[in-house]
Every structure is written in structure tokens, then in C-alpha cells.
Design a protein that fits this description.
This protein folds into two domains: 147 residues, no CATH class; 37 residues. It is an all-alpha fold. The chain is built from seven helices and no strands. Helix 5 packs across helix 6.
């Protein structure tokens, strides 16, 4: 129900021409869009025989033996787990864009997608987090492509949904930082000048 409520909020914002400001819903929904896109890419590779497994099978194997994933309801559970994980992982990506600005957001999304591939997929296989195994090099390569798709779509969705005031350009953020650094200096100089003037007046008296 919460997911449906969030999607309803997004549709209302889009229809009214407004942009979102809340970081967590933006990151969650953008991560969800990225996860759906990477699943479509994964299914395409699976149907063409390039990839061995789907993400529903990988995620489901965390909770149960691979033999139980032959049942449809267990694969659906794995798919739900995968969608939730991808949605939550979108929140840190939005934090990165807030800190660095929206310049080159697709490049940042690609870097983030590569990071998630190494963190979740590579380490998941290496340390036996997944009970389902992948052995072919083509499967490893296609999962990297899927995660790049995740980064592209998630970052693009964030730019589309977010208000400019929340997600400015990197050059604008640098200008704001410079201005914040200059303001205290001006105030300090004024305080020093007034202090010296006060000393001179005391000496004259």
C-alpha cells in the first residue's frame, strides 16, 4: 500500500507539473525504476541464452535452496526481494547527486551501477550469499550491463523528478560554497577594524 501511495504521489506531481523535494521517496522510486529497467535487460539476455539466471533466482536463492525456485511462487518472492533491494539502493545514489550536483548524472549513475555490481553480485557469488551459481563469463558480463542500465535509469529518473532547488548543478554548488566562505571573512575584517578604532579612541582619551 505504501508503494502504491508513493506512486500515486508521483503521478500527481507529474500531472501538476511540480517536482519532488523529499529525498527518500525520490531515491526509492528512482531505484525502483532502475530495477525494473535492469530486470527487462536481464530477461532479454536470459531469453536469448546469453545469461544463465534471472535476478529473481539470485535473490530467491538467498532465502531458499535453488531447487525450491522451480516453483513460481518462490520466484515471485525472489523478485519482490530484488525490487525492494534495488529501490532502497537508489537512496544513496540520490545522496551522491545532492552532494556533487546533477552535472554528468549519467556518468555518476554508471559508476554507481558498477559499484553495486561489484558489491552485491561479485561479493555475493564469492562469499556464497547466493545459493544459485553462475559460471559463464557471458553471465557475468551481462549482469554488469544490467547494473549499468540500473545506474543510467535511476539517475535519469532522479533528475526528472527532483526540484532544481534540491538538486542544483555542480557549478552552482561550488559558487554557493565560495560565497559562504567569503561572508565570514568580510565580517571578521569589520570586527577587527572596529576593534582597532576603539583602541585608538581609548588612547586619545
Amino acid at each position: 500500500m505504501k508503494l502504491l501511495h508513493s506512486l500515486d504521489r508521483v503521478s500527481k506531481f507529474i500531472s501538476s507539473g511540480k517536482k519532488m523535494r523529499d529525498s527518500i521517496p525520490i531515491g526509492f522510486i528512482s531505484g525502483l525504476m532502475g530495477t525494473i529497467a535492469m530486470d527487462l535487460s536481464n530477461l532479454m539476455f536470459k531469453k536469448t541464452g546469453v545469461s544463465e539466471k534471472t535476478y529473481a533466482e539470485f535473490a530467491g536463492s538467498i532465502l531458499m535452496r535453488p531447487s525450491r525456485l522451480l516453483f513460481k511462487e518462490n520466484r515471485i518472492l525472489g523478485q519482490i526481494l530484488h525490487l525492494i533491494t534495488g529501490s532502497i539502493i537508489g537512496i544513496p545514489l540520490f545522496t551522491v547527486l545532492k552532494k556533487t550536483g546533477k552535472d554528468n548524472h549519467l556518468f555518476k549513475g554508471a559508476i554507481y551501477g558498477t559499484f553495486t555490481w561489484e558489491l552485491l553480485y561479485s561479493f555475493g557469488l564469492r562469499y556464497n550469499v547466493f545459493r544459485s551459481k553462475a559460471y559463464s563469463t557471458s553471465t557475468h558480463m551481462t549482469t554488469l550491463i544490467d547494473n549499468l542500465v540500473y545506474g543510467f535509469v535511476s539517475s535519469a529518473t532522479m533528475i526528472f523528478l527532483t526540484d532544481h532547488a534540491v538538486l542544483p548543478k555542480g557549478s552552482d554548488k561550488q559558487l554557493e560554497t565560495q560565497m559562504e566562505g567569503e561572508i565570514p571573512k568580510v565580517n571578521d575584517n569589520r570586527i577587527e577594524d572596529s576593534f582597532y578604532n576603539y583602541e585608538d579612541e581609548v588612547r586619545l582619551h
